[in-house]
Design a protein that fits this description.
The protein is mainly beta and 1399 residues long. It has four helices and 114 strands. The protein is extended, with a radius of gyration of 54 Å.
């Protein structure tokens, strides 16, 4: 039974353990401060955990799998938590002595303010229409957590809508809000704004709102302002105004009594009106039209009284009117006003302004004002008039209305992007929509040096487009120089000083090849059998192509270096450097220094392989950027056997040519795999060679970041980074180098053989030291093509790393001895450093001192003690022991007690604490005790508040519930038998600021200008303890201390001066006011920080992401769909130009619109442009004839090539079977063919007939024919050809010769040949391809000798007899066979057969 009892005990123990491991139900001893943390991603927060239970085993923090240093003595444990994980958690854990475990979580929210907010109309419609919904979208990028995001919509600062989000994601997301608004016409130009703000309630951080604005144009149909009926004197002039307003501005049509007046402005000038009439004005825009009727009634002009002087007379005396200002320069659309007053009050009756807008009535006031809120006319017809007792006169102000250029563009006039050294290179500066042009000045610069100034004589007052040109002659040392044109309106010193608008152009200067060392003839000595490399030191732009010869023989080398292996004999080498501007030749004589004779070598049978194919490519290798031009020359060295040559290529190929030099050329290389070859036909063979073409693309972007999103490395542990390289080709030529502070550490290459652009990456595990904290890590990505290839710039990214390490003692000693005189004060220092900075804990003989600074101050040391300092961060801790030894003072003489002797020994009072730092309004208490009990009579506290009486106790306490005085006057005194003394505690009273705010002197900031930020700290004390820290983001940029010893609360200010840059835009500036109250101050430095101030920096555009080339589909692609972005503030607008003209970027493009497009980003501070080569793709189509003629062994003169992009693949079919594409047509290839063209966008088919023409060919050549006299003879002439040849005979005619035709041949027949028929008969066959001839030579021969007539008859009789005998024999044989058959016929019928065929 013992085992059953043992099992019961084990179960009981297990149950008890389970019960003890839970937290006591009555209370959790843990308190977390702060209980809820809201922090910015990437920053660090400090958490404290305090326990009310002092008897425990250990206490620590846990976050994920990481734990803090475990505490087993103190009642609190602190931890610094990096907010580098969006799902970070922190739990404080305590294990009690009874094995119970308690924990408490700190609520941590990690946030990230939006990176950018963008506002735009959803349908890309830049104008709203009155009364119709207009929808906008507010894009918010990379914000977290989105559930705390609030989006507010405003019209002119009036809130109209608020949006919130339900997404519970903790990581950054991109989101958006939309708003539909219905606008009125009086809201034209209104500013719409969306604000995105993370809202964490009143107790959370008050983060700034990120916002974007959009000024909307409101369109509406024309509307009448007021109807008109006008009365006018006969013969007067009058101007009628069509008082109509609309947006867009309407077009006008005027009629008079139904007759068109051919006037299309809003005014109609009628000169010397004679009769009443009805005028009609029709105003129209795309939203509608309206008609205004003006009835003009003409009345007779009364005679002018003779007594009243005329207006002209008054002008002689001078008109008594004063304009203020008399002249004004006003921007179109801005307000303007002019005061008019009279100096002749004695004769004054009244005055007023006559003007088409802003006029006044006839007023009795001696001061009238012409005022226009928005000046939107270019010609100002306003005048101030005055009526005096005996006259009337008027004056006109001189108003100049201006408009700064909308855009300035600079480009070469002939679209040639490179200048040639020493030749004029013309540029054109286009200035768009500027007025008045007569005030325009255009200045031209080279690298900030002014070269030329242009002005204009055009007197137009309305905006015009104009230009200035400049022919400049550049030197080669000015390659890459920046050319600039500045356009500026100038109105003199008294007018507005307007900014110059400018455009820049970096020019490439081309020049012919030149030798660098200025010697064109070198001598190189080399030992026999050694290798040598010859260098052709020539430079040019574009870089030259090189050609080497040896003693006049081409070396087939096109690089600037020529490597010669085992030189054996003297030779003269020639290097010719050529570009399209010229060439230069360098001669290098190689002299061989003989060595001692060596044994004769056997000839190398493989040496003949050096001859190979007799073709030379120039260059044989080329490295070309995608989209750039390329050309390769191909020539033959075997002219003796040469028949013809050419290039076969999917693009840029040539036909079969008789020239010994053919060129493959492509204007824009837009294929990654090049399949081109040069072939040559020799008498007895054919061969070909291929150039080695490498097409490259530099990386679009390089990015560097830690792989695990951990922003700090730990000393001695691997820290992995990743370098992302985007869109690079070919990746096998990519080299990635890693650096620490410019020292190269690692190099990576790639084996991927892909020729098209790819995204790739390189990683690096680095182990860092603590002295490398803050080091810059860098990865560089560079395409390398060797010394002969292009030297491309490296693309790079950097990362500054923080290195964390455990605390270490600076002086390397962990046990110090400090000697101190009895009664003296001493300060102990714990010289430990670490990253993050350690937290310190002091003990005295094992008792906690409640001090967490690195210094410990001890007042009036009286006894030896052992002090321990423990420095801790999350990576570890270190302890330093300091033994304090007290040196006793000498005893005083015993005779007479000296009342002042206590001051030498020190007053035997101990204050605990001797120093205290108290917040205003908090309680404070100080214990005072005596160490001289033998002579003690009594003690107490003297104080303005909290004092005690004289007490016999050796311990008295000064205590105040609320400190409400800034200066503390309290002291502890003791009365001894022979003396009295006192000590004062050092009490510092502090107060944190009521408010801390940041403001800017002027807004907004402009890049490159100095700005001033003010930090106002309200009601803080004491000032001398105040320290203000300025932060830009999380980086401290400035610190200021204050030294004024005022102890009462004051208001102070701190200033931050800096020069703004675009990187400061949307940067968050804040100031933190800290009270550094010393080691006796609070554990956490009292501080107050301002709400972040969001800087708005205006800067001109800078292109961020825009491809160099792009391919789109016809009728689908439009420029608005191309991702081309620029950064700028105000947000730049994108304008697209094609062939120098601005285009509607929303219209789809067609195949005819492929080419270079210019993207121009413009804001109020400037513009920047880049070019994009657009290729429009479209399906194949044929535009070919239905039939072709071609000569045999030739090529079609007009090849049937389909149109399409990408270039279609063509398949030829004949009789339904696929065949290879014909290169040369043979004479039997005539027939019908089917062509099928295919590319990515479709297929096209075409039928054609090819008729192969060839010259006539005789079946039989010339021959000789012998003919007997009197004989008859016939011979023919037959030839094949296409088209069918025409055949004719050339011979000497005779009566017995006749020509006959049979089919496609022509015969000659001779009857009774005679000697005159002998001779040469020539047959000629001709068609349009050519003609051929052959000869038949007719030779006559005499008759043979005749046999006697009798003999001939005898022979005939013998022949007849033989024939009869044979017939008889055959008959007899047949009869015998018939008898044999009849024997069988009685029993079986038979059917006879002859040779197996039925008879």
């Amino acid at each position: 039974m013992w085992h059953l009892r043992m099992l019961g005990h084990l179960m009981l123990i297990f149950l008890l353990c389970e019960a003890d491991s839970t937290c006591p139900t009555e209370s959790n001893p843990l308190t977390v401060h702060p209980p809820e943390v809201i922090g910015e991603y990437g920053k660090t927060v400090i958490l404290n955990c305090t326990s009310t239970e002092l008897e425990y085993e250990e206490m620590y923090w846990r976050s994920g799998t990481t734990t803090s240093e475990k505490e087993d003595e103190l009642d609190f444990v602190g931890w610094s938590v990096p907010l580098s994980d969006w799902h970070v958690t922190a739990k404080c854990v305590i294990k009690l002595n009874n094995s119970a475990e308690c924990s408490k979580d700190a609520e941590i929210t990690v946030y990230k303010n939006p990176v950018k907010v963008n506002l735009f109309p959803t349908k890309h419609t830049n104008s709203a229409v009155v009364g119709r919904p207009y929808e906008l979208q507010c894009d918010i990028r990379e914000v977290a957590p989105v559930k705390n995001l609030i989006v507010r919509w405003y019209i002119n600062n009036q809130i109209i809508k608020t949006d919130s989000f339900n997404n519970t994601s903790k990581t950054p997301v991109n989101t958006f809000s939309t708003s539909k608004v219905v606008l009125r016409k009086d809201q034209h130009g209104v500013q719409l704004r969306c604000e995105a703000q993370l809202d964490f309630g009143r107790s959370g951080p008050q983060l700034p709102a990120m916002y974007a604005t959009y000024n909307v144009s409101v369109h509406y149909a024309p509307e009448l302002k007021n109807p008109d009926n006008i009365v006018v004197y006969e013969g007067d002039d009058i101007t009628l105004t069509c008082g109509v307003e609309a947006n867009p501005p309407p077009a006008f049509i005027w009629t008079r009594d139904g007759v068109n007046m051919l006037e299309n402005t809003n005014k109609l000038n009628v000169i010397q009106i004679k009769a009443s009439a009805t005028y009609s004005c029709v105003a129209t825009n795309y939203l509608g039209s309206v008609t205004k009727i003006i009835n003009v009634r003409v009345i007779a002009n009364p005679a002018t009284p003779a007594a009243i002087p005329t207006t002209e007379a008054s002008t002689k005396k001078g008109c008594p009117l004063l304009l203020m200002p008399a002249e004004a320069v006003v921007r179109f659309g801005d307000p303007v006003s002019v005061n008019c007053s009279t100096t002749d009050v004695a004769h004054f009756e009244g005055m007023g302004w006559e003007a088409p807008f802003g006029g006044t009535g006839f007023e009795k006031s001696s001061l009238v004002t012409w005022k226009v809120e928005n000046l939107e006319e270019w010609t100002i017809e306003s005048k101030c008039y005055v009526t005096l007792n005996d006259s009337q006169c008027s004056v006109k102000p001189d108003i100049t209305v201006y408009k700064n250029p909308v855009n300035v563009d600079l480009f070469p006039t002939k679209n040639i992007h490179a200048a040639v050294e020493g030749k004029p290179y013309e540029l054109r500066c286009d200035i768009q929509e500027v007025a008045p042009v007569k005030n325009l000045i255009v200045r031209w610069y080279i690298n900030n040096q002014i070269i030329k100034t242009d002005s204009f004589n055009n007197t137009s007052k309305t905006p015009v487009n104009t230009f200035s040109t400049w022919k400049v002659v550049l030197r080669k040392d000015q390659h890459g120089a920046q050319l600039r044109c500045e356009a500026q309106l100038e109105f003199g010193t008294s007018g507005p000083q307007l900014p110059a608008m400018y455009a820049t152009y970096n020019v490439s200067v081309h020049y012919a090849p030149e030798l660098r060392n200025n010697t064109d003839n070198d001598i190189v000595d080399v030992d026999e059998g050694d290798d040598v490399t010859l260098t052709c030191e020539a430079e040019g732009n574009p870089p030259p192509v090189f050609n080497w010869t040896r003693d006049g023989v081409n070396m087939l080398e096109n690089m600037n270096n020529l490597s010669i292996i085992q030189v054996t004999s003297n030779a003269t080498y020639s290097c010719k450097a050529t570009n399209y501007l010229g060439n230069i030749t360098k001669i290098i004589n190689v002299r061989v220094i003989p060595r001692a004779a060596a044994p004769a070598a056997m000839p190398d049978p493989g040496a003949t392989t050096k001859k190979g194919c007799p073709l030379v490519l120039m260059p044989a290798e080329a490295v070309v950027r995608f989209g750039d031009p390329v050309s390769v020359n191909c020539s033959t060295t075997d002219v003796a056997h040469f028949e013809g040559m050419g290039w076969e290529a999917p693009f840029g190929g040539t036909g079969f040519e008789k020239s010994s030099l053919v060129t493959w050329k492509v204007e824009n290389l837009e294929e990654w795999t090049i399949e081109s070859k040069c072939y040559v036909n020799l008498n007895d063979s054919q061969c070909s060679v291929k150039p080695d073409i490498t097409v490259y693309k530099n990386p679009v972007n390089v990015d560097l970041f830690p792989t695990k999103n951990i922003h700090a490395a730990v000393e001695g542990k691997p820290y992995e980074l990743r370098c992302d390289i985007q869109e690079v080709a070919p990746v096998k030529n990519l080299i990635v180098r890693w650096y620490i502070n410019n020292q190269i550490i690692k190099t990576d290459s790639f084996n991927n053989t892909s020729k098209t652009p790819v995204n790739t990456f390189s990683t690096w595990k680095v182990v860092l030291r603590k002295d490398q904290h803050g080091a810059q890590l860098r990865c560089e990505a560079q395409l390398e093509f060797g010394t002969s290839g292009p030297q491309l710039p490296a693309m790079y990214a950097t990362y500054n790393v923080s290195v964390h390490y455990a605390p270490e003692l600076r002086n390397n000693t962990d046990n110090d001895i400090v000697d101190v005189d009895e009664g003296d004060d001493v300060t102990l220092t714990c010289e430990a450093e670490g990253n993050p900075p350690p937290v310190f804990n002091w003990t005295r003989d094992g008792v906690n001192m409640l001090e967490n600074m690195n210094n410990l101050s001890i007042i009036q040391v009286t006894s030896n003690a052992t002090y321990s300092c423990k420095a801790t961060n999350y990576l570890g801790n270190i302890t330093k022991i300091i033994n304090v030894r007290v040196i006793p003072r000498a005893a005083a003489p015993a005779a007479m007690p000296d009342p002042g002797a206590t001051t030498k020994k020190g007053c035997p009072l101990v204050l605990m604490p001797a120093e205290a730092v108290v917040r205003f309004g908090d309680p404070v208490s100080v214990n005072c005790s005596t160490t001289d009990v033998a002579h003690f009579e009594g003690m107490g506290w003297e104080a303005t508040f909290g004092g005690t009486g004289f007490e016999n106790s050796s311990l008295v306490t000064w205590k105040v519930e609320k400190v409400q005085e800034w200066t503390i006057e309290s002291k502890c005194y003791v009365t001894l038998i022979d003396s009295q003394c006192s000590v004062k505690p050092d009490i510092t009273v502090y107060k944190t600021p009521d408010a801390v705010t940041v403001s800017l002197d002027s807004s907004p900031m402009v890049e490159g200008t100095e700005y001033k930020l003010n930090c106002d700290i309200i009601n803080v004390a004491p000032q001398e303890k105040l320290q203000v820290k300025w932060y830009k983001g999380s980086e401290m940029v400035h610190k200021q201390r204050f030294s004024d010893p005022i102890v009462t609360p004051v208001n102070v200010s701190s200033t931050l001066m800096a020069t703004s840059s675009r990187n400061d835009d949307r940067a968050l500036f804040k100031c933190v006011a800290e009270l550094h109250l010393g080691p006796k101050g609070p554990e956490l430095v009292p501080a107050a920080e301002s709400s972040p101030y969001t800087a708005v920096v205006y800067y001109k555009p800078q292109i961020q992401n825009c491809p160099g080339s792009y391919r789109g589909v016809e009728h689908e692609f439009h420029m608005d769909s191309l991702i081309c972005k620029a950064d700028g503030n105000p947000e730049p607008t994108l304008q697209w130009y094609y062939q120098g003209k601005r285009i509607n970027a929303s219209e789809p493009l067609t195949r005819a619109q492929s080419g270079e497009y210019t993207a121009k980003f413009v804001n109020s501070l400037g513009s920047i442009s880049t070019t994009v080569h657009i290729t429009i793709e479209y399906p194949p189509s044929f535009n070919c004839d239905k039939s072709y003629e071609v000569q045999a062994d030739g090529k079609l003169q007009n090849e049937c090539v389909p149109q399409g992009e990408p270039k279609p693949d063509i398949i030829w079919y004949k009789d339904g079977k696929q065949m290879s594409t014909p290169q040369y047509w043979r004479k039997h290839d005539s027939g019908s063919y089917s062509l099928k063209a295919t590319n990515n966008h479709g297929t096209a088919n075409h039928m054609l007939y090819v008729d192969v023409l060839y010259a006539p060919v005789f079946r039989k050549g010339s021959y000789t024919l012998e003919v007997t006299l009197d004989a008859n003879v016939t011979f023919d002439c037959h030839a094949e050809g296409n088209p069918d040849p025409v055949i004719r005979w050339n011979y000497t005619s005779a009566d017995n010769v006749m020509e006959t035709t049979g089919g496609r041949q022509k015969n000659i027949s001779i009857t009774g040949a005679t000697s005159t028929n002998a001779g040469v008969y020539v047959c000629v066959a001709t068609n349009k391809v050519g003609s051929v001839a052959k000869a038949v030579t007719l030779v006559m021969k005499g008759k043979t000798r005749q046999f006697p007539r009798d003999i001939i008859w005898i022979l005939i009789i013998i022949l007849i007899l033989i024939t009869i005998t044979i017939l008889i024999v055959l008959y007899c044989s047949r009869r015998k066979k018939q008898r044999k058959y009849s024997l069988v016929s009685q029993s079986m019928p038979m059917t006879t057969k002859a040779n197996g065929v039925q008879a």
